[in-house]
Amino acid sequence: MSLLPYPTLFLLLGIAIPFCVGWKIASILLAPYLTALRDLPGPPSSSWLYGSMKEMKHADFAAIHEDWVAKYGKTFKYKEWMNFDRLYTIDTRALGHILSHSNDFPKQAVGLFFLSQVVGSGLLIVGGEQHRRQRRVLNPAFGPAQIRELTSIFVEKAHQLRDVWNADINGDGEPHRVEVLSGLSKMTLDVIGLAGFNYHFDALNPHGQKNELNEAFTVMFRTLSGFNLGLLRILKGYFPLLRLIPDKYTRRIDAAQSVMRRIGMELITEKKAELAKAAETGVKGEHLKSRDLLTLLLKANMSEDVPLNQRLSDDEVLAQVPTFLVAGHETTSNATAWCLFALAHSPEVQQRLREELFSLLSENPSMDELNELPYLDAVIRETMRVHAPVPSTSRIAAQDDVIPLETPVVDVNGQVHNTLKVSKGNIIQIPILVLNRSKELWGEDAHEFKPERWITGIPDSAKHIPGVWGHMLSFLGGPRACIGYRFSLIEMKALIFSLIRAFEFQPAVPYEAITRKLAIVQRPYVRGEMEKGSQLPLLIRRYQRT
Ligand code: HEM
Ligand SMILES: *[C@@H]1O[C@H](CO)[C@@H](O)[C@H](O)[C@H]1NC(C)=O
Ligand SMILES: *[C@@H]1O[C@H](CO)[C@@H](O)[C@H](O)[C@H]1NC(C)=O
Ligand SMILES: CC(=O)N[C@H]1CO[C@H](CO)[C@@H](O)[C@@H]1O
């Protein structure tokens, strides 16, 4: 090995290391002048270190984005840490290209590191071939026929929440101030437990026992979320070597992770045994007792349609447990909370909706019955548009590429471009919420909560939005669109069905008092009560049908 004498070796290393470090630094410093984005217009950077990130953290981030769109057009760039360019576009054609070419525009590794500590290599994290393989086995579990089977769980849990609130009214009279967030969050946790893995969180039960899996998950989620990540944690996102240094977060997450693994493995073993028994006794899949997602997944993995080399390992299946929890719990509850908020502030919409809901005679509607209520559908669509729970996401260009554009861009030199060049490593912001509410796409009343627009017909411009559902990006689009959108839509419909029939909702604090903060999902806060954490108080009264 050691052909070189030591002094020479040291000398070479002495040159090579500074050279490499210098090269790296130079390429970081020069990147903004070299990438394909350099001539795009955009807001000037206010700081070398933070770019425009500080303004974005302080101002209502969506409002600042809208200002930029007004000033610089549909496609521009802004500066982030160390003046790196970030491409921003609400051009529907460009977004369609980016979302449909999910291998050329994968998720960013930095963000994935934090998330992967919680969800392992589940569907949210993995990319490329592994993603395609997982998605193939998972897709059938989220199809309409499977969601139809789960509807009774949604309805039953919605009624349980209604009964909890009814009991509160019995306790302290009307109107009762209810913190809708916490109730909804318990409901969606119970639902994802039962519908996901036939696991009883029992969160809605006021006398329920403390739950091990719930606690493990809470620890992980708390550790994961929030901006107070600490410098070391942030640096770990960028420099994988640093991840070898233990910190208190890593230790806490590891402990919680092992609880989750143990319980997850127990669930998997149980379900495999049930499937094996069913196979022995000749019970066909559709007559199986368990209809939860995990069982369906294990079954799909055994299906002859899936070649052996395409199947999932135990670890991959296990990783879907925290994945469903992270992806399916807070998103749905926060969306429903915003829906109730919007309804509390639009009494006529609320009443019109209630009348439609009472047109169903059954207390326990099926999926098809829920889907046949046009105004309920319009209200849910409008909630997802105006209050998209996941307000934005991002992608990175895996190589140099040319992106088609609907609207040409004019660069800083006044040149018009009909397509957009990006360089490998450029980061692209996908502004879900801003796009959902763009006046250019939705018309002048874009900011208003108006379910009627879905009945009278939305503008053609909005029809070009490349989303998987409802001409919106609320569930994104392309091969990496939300796999659980049908699940959450029916869950939300069941909740609204049960709650709006039982109660009248009114604001508990003025409209302006509710503000929102961005973590992984948009969460409501009450101004002046930020220390109480995320909350959304509303007043409820029992609805008396005359
Ligand atoms: C209102 C509720 C929901 C909203 C707004 C929502 C939104 C989204 C969005 C925007 C993405 C794409 C994220 C990105 O690529 O950056 C996504 C992905 C995903 N969602 Fe949902 N989601 C919801 C409910 C659910 C539910 C109930 C489940 C599962 C039970 C779920 C499972 C997933 C999974 C597994 C992915 C990753 C898909 C992939 O990368 O292939 N989501 N969701
Ligand atoms: C929305 O997110 C917040 C923050 O984690 C969470 O506490 C809350 O429960 C979520 N909303 C609902 C309705 O569950
Ligand atoms: C999926 O199927 C493969 C091949 O039959 C098997 O090795 C693997 O253990 C299965 N995965 C699970 C989680 O059951
Ligand atoms: C996209 C976004 O948040 N912008 C606007 C949304 O609507 C509210 C009022 O309806 C405005 O205050 C925001 O600026």
From TrEMBL:
Keywords from the UniProt entry: Heme, Iron, Membrane, Metal-binding, Monooxygenase, Oxidoreductase, Transmembrane, Transmembrane helix
UniProt-recorded name of the protein: Cytochrome P450
Positions with a binding annotation for heme: C482
UniProt keyword Nucleotidyltransferase, yes or no: no
Membrane-traversing stretches: 9-34
Protein family (similarity comment): Belongs to the cytochrome P450 family.
MF term (GO), any: iron ion binding
Cofactor(s) listed in the protein's UniProt record: heme
Superkingdom, natural source: Eukaryota
Pathway recorded for this protein: Secondary metabolite biosynthesis
Pfam families: p450
